[in-house]
Design brief:
This protein is mostly helical and about 160 residues long. It has one domain: Winged helix-like DNA-binding domain superfamily/Winged helix DNA-binding domain (Arc Repressor Mutant, subunit A, Orthogonal Bundle), CATH 1.10.10. Helices cover about 75% and strands about 5% of the residues. The longest helix has about 50 residues. The radius of gyration is 22 Å and the shape is globular.
Length: about 160
């Protein structure tokens, strides 16, 4: 008579041995999801700050043009940013950054510039560095960002 196997216990053992790796992997995925959520807010406050500096105002239609989305998408996102305390609006007026929105915009621009400077320092063209930094800036950890900045400072005269 064949001896019964205990498949459940061998499966459980594999799960237990993989658990630490699974936990680390889940943390990495969670960090990426969080970065995606912040990315939208950062892009919007950056554009609002840029428009205010350049033209004196930030209108939904101009934000839509800069980000490449519809006017309706901008309105919905601005409502969310308003709930999050990053912008204020008034009926038939421009969009304004709160102090928290200004801090976020400044931090986003700083991260963007660090990534651009790093990419330029390793020989990436300006056009590619600007385009690539737009995605990278939202996903690097503070540790990696500091390292990029250190490397850039040591390579720049």
């Amino acid at each position: 008579m064949p001896r019964p196997t205990n498949r459940a216990s061998s499966t459980d053992a594999r799960r237990r041995s993989a658990a630490p790796d699974a936990g680390r992997q889940a943390d990495r995925h969670r960090r990426t999801r969080d970065a995606h959520a912040r990315e939208l807010a950062e892009d919007y406050v950056e554009v609002v700050a840029e428009l205010i500096e350049r033209t004196g105002e930030a209108r939904a239609v101009d934000i839509a043009r800069h980000i490449g989305v519809t006017h309706v998408t901008v309105i919905k996102t601005i409502e969310r940013l308003q709930r999050d305390g990053l912008v204020t609006t008034r009926p038939y007026r421009s969009i304004f950054l709160t102090d928290a929105g200004k801090r976020l915009a400044d931090a986003s621009r700083r991260r963007h510039q660090i990534v651009v400077n790093f990419l330029l320092s390793i020989g990436v063209s300006d056009a590619a560095a600007q385009a690539d930094a737009e995605g990278i800036e939202h996903h690097v950890s503070p540790e990696t960002l500091a390292a990029l900045e250190r490397v850039t400072r040591t390579r720049t005269p």
